[in-house]
Amino acid sequence: MKNYKKGLLTLMVLSAMSLMAAEDTFIHVTTFDDEDGENLNQCSLREAIKTAADNKAFGGCNAGDTRLGQKDRIQLKEGSYKLKRELVPQSVIEIYGAEPLDYSKKHVLTNTYPATTAIKTTISGENQTRILNSSLSKYGVSFKNLTLANAVSTGLGGAIYAGADINLSNVAIMNSRAAQGGAIYLDGNIALTIDHGLIQGNQAGQGSVLAMTCLNNLLFTKPTITIQNSSLVANGAANNQSMLDICGEASILLQTNTIAKNQANSSTGAIIKNVSSNATQANLSENSTLTLLSNTIVENNAASTLLYDQLGSKNISFNVLAYNSGQSCRYALNNGNVTDAKLNMSAINNALQLAAVTGQCNLPKVAYESNVSGTNTNIDVSNISMATLLTTYTEPNANTEYLPLYYPRNNQTANDLVNLGTVGCSDVDQRGFSRITDATLILNPSMKNTCDIGSVELMRLTAADIINLKNLSYSQMIADYQRAIDLYQKRIDDKSTDAKYLTQYQAELSAFKDLKSNTEKYAKYRAIYIDPFALALPDEQWVNNESQVQALNAENYTINTQVLGVGHYSGEGSNFQFIGDQDPKLKCEWVPELKRIMFYRLDDSISTIGESALCIYRITSKADTTKTTSGLLSASFTNIAPIAKEDTYSLQYGSSQKISLHPLENDFDDDGPKGSIAGLNKADFYRNEAGQELAIRLDSLPSAMMVDPSVPHGPCPGSAMRDTCYSSDLVVQVKNNYSPFDQILEYTVFDAEGLASNRAKIYLNNTAKNTVTSGGGGGSIGWWSLLGLLGLGLYRHHSQTKKR
């Protein structure tokens, strides 16, 4: 269940935070100045990179992680680092900016802590230098939560000239310039990953964002490039020839991006150039691949937005590739005539302008017919205005995860870009929302959330069907809540806890306290506690001309429930049919104070195989009651195993050694409070047909002990009937009352239905340990004493032998 998992997640997150605090191996940069050893009191970024390479302190920097083979991590502060010359890595490093998070606020899209913010840390080339050059050193670098800005090179790579792998996560590259690769230039078989990036305002004669080496020793280079969940906007200039200049045996994945308002030469330029531009020797391999999946590619100004030829494979799916100046797709050969072109190309479920209009996407017929049906599955938007299908360009803000983008409009017409009725788009949209296109909607199949075309998935209020529900261990659930409460309280009370976390910790502490106390207040026998918002999709509304997601919570939505009964169902939508019996003992109700749906019974019946308890729940928007959705709950009620706890007793040394054990005193049935069922008169533990309580099975009895024969006993229940079970008035006896040793028993307890518990131990601690002293310590007979006694015995035996 969701609430159970949340408890575990809390523990893992807090434990991880504790571990990170205890093992901080980051090299912390303490100055914004570009120093290089001249100040031993401060650590600069340049000095941190040298420290990472040498694995020893330098120029005011701590040594970092000196373990063999470990990457060094460099932590920057909030602010701007201004470089005098480019950085050259001499080891594999990761460079982190300040966390773009506000722990005092909730995320506007998820309504959970913390809120995201804009990037807080910048590395600037000050319009006089490139930022990073690994072309000679060949060491990989990762950047996270950073802006790389105002970098300049007269040659290759304005911000980054890469000779090794580059990983960019939540990174912006802004206003950088070069002859080739205004933002990035790749030299060799390099993996480049950009995830949640903003690439804006960069320029270069070739590849205003990206260019690369095509050949190395007459062999194609093999770069692997993934750009996803990013915005590539407003790059290039009228005299630039391309934005992404692809060559070699490149493997390119552009997924869930906004690619818009970029510029290249209006007569010869291309935004995505995927052709061989060398007539003497092809510089694009026939083994190259280009995949465009779930992108919004609009309002670009160039002769071609996608320029392609016969080389390599191209897969174009779920993109808005339209509304660009020039041609959105242009074939570079045969004067653009694709009639007889034989290409390895597919174009499926895109929004394209197929007619001869500005923005036309000119593709060969083979691209349309490559899908399973053999027909054109693309939407022709030649005669539909962009404003009909998409909103205007939305500037970065909290609702867009600080990336500029376009939202699809839901006009509920056949040519809409939303809910295409098929799957295969990217798993998440550009904002990070899971598209959840494979959910079952038994009651409302017409509301199923299928793929939208483009980088943004428009959220539509959808309740999930939750099946195979079962009641869980009540004690474990409460214990998990308490563990979360204890950990949050510990963090709050810890004086070393960073104050920025306290608002979140207080809110989470309060939420878990409420959850625990209200669960205990409303608890029912064998109840199932369901968070109806856990798997639902929220409603997305337009407010003040911008999209806002209505967070899934009881403040924004109402919950209603309807019990169907016990049985099964068939069909869906209007053909849905409940097959079974109504059951007045079955309850399914929303408890506002608990913020859970409680599914339970008014008796202690358990579910039979092949039958389920069924309930319908409905989520309705408070802001717009016409927006409502229903989901099906299907559950079975099972018997939960009892819990056996450890027990400790004392053995009186030298006494008769008979001892009465009462292990059931702190053992319990774990189905929840039986008192919630009126008139239920049911024992916690197993009784035989004669009414005798025979619930204890001894799984391990030391050879030095025996059960008193007078203790009531008989066969254990069910499949354990070959074993012997004893009553709760258990009496055991040590065979040698002068034995000084402790004893340990193991036992299992059976509940009223005959279900076995976990195995628990009974410790019998011998008081002899407290009456005999020796050098062994702790009041026990130590090893030296035992050796002494053994030696004395051997001496006496030897003397008697000699006398004989």
From TrEMBL:
Protein name: CSLREA domain-containing protein
Signal sequence residues: 1-21
Record has Transmembrane as a keyword: yes
Record's keyword terms, sorted: Membrane, Signal, Transmembrane, Transmembrane helix
Record bears the keyword Kinase: no
Lineage, top ranks: Bacteria, Pseudomonadati, Pseudomonadota, Gammaproteobacteria, Moraxellales
Superkingdom in the source lineage: Bacteria
NCBIfam families named in the record: CSLREA_Nterm, GlyGly_CTERM
Transmembrane feature ranges: 775-795
Family matches, as SUPFAM superfamilies: Pectin lyase-like
Species this protein is from: Acinetobacter tandoii DSM 14970 = CIP 107469
